[in-house]
Amino acid sequence: MIKIADIKADEEVKAIMFMAESQIEALGFTEHSVRHSSIVSKWAGDILEKIGAEEHRIELARIAGYLHDIGNSVNREDHAQSGAILAYKILTRMGMEYRDAAAIMMAIGNHDESQGLPVSDITSALIIADKADVHKSRVRVNTTRMSTENLNIHDRVNLAAEKSTVEVDAERGEIVLNIIIDTEKCPVMDYFEIYFKRMQLCRRAADFLGKKFVLVINDVRFL
């Protein structure tokens, strides 16, 4: 079986991920580099592991998490769909079984809130893991927008996010996204302005996994 370590070591994957992040940086969007991909990969696998999924599915979720944004190498628009096709081609070239590659393709193609739906366990874990990565380290410091006036709302929210974690509370049947926001930098309402639709998708993803999605910001439960 192809493992996440094989994916990370592949030269084609490295090249495509480099170009994806280069385009995102040129557009001035928040970081979508190996850092983000690695976090999403880990969290997606952890979610399935903690709900008792088979090791095979856990590994597929980790791979989907790592590759989920490679479509940004083509264009930001419809990056989920282009990334899904790219991932399928890469994975089958590497020798992955067609059904496994197709499962990852489906997950990547459905991870974006604009068109995505939680249609599998891998997809659901990927959706939650991706939307959970809100952190100040994702804001680019080498742009001309780094004054308070020039920061867009995505920058402000991420810059105010001191910490975000995803936990599965098996006893209560919950998947909990816990975020610490510095409200002196950004009001909590700004978070909801840009993340509300994403949180709705996370709720549907948790439902697919048979769990309840819970959002906690600064120790206050919102969902």
From TrEMBL:
It comes from the Bacteria. PROSITE patterns: HD. SUPFAM superfamilies: HD-domain/PDEase-like. Residues 33-135 form the HD domain. NCBIfam families: HDIG. This is HD domain-containing protein. It comes from Candidatus Borkfalkia avicola. The lineage of its organism: Bacteria, Bacillati, Bacillota, Clostridia, Christensenellales.
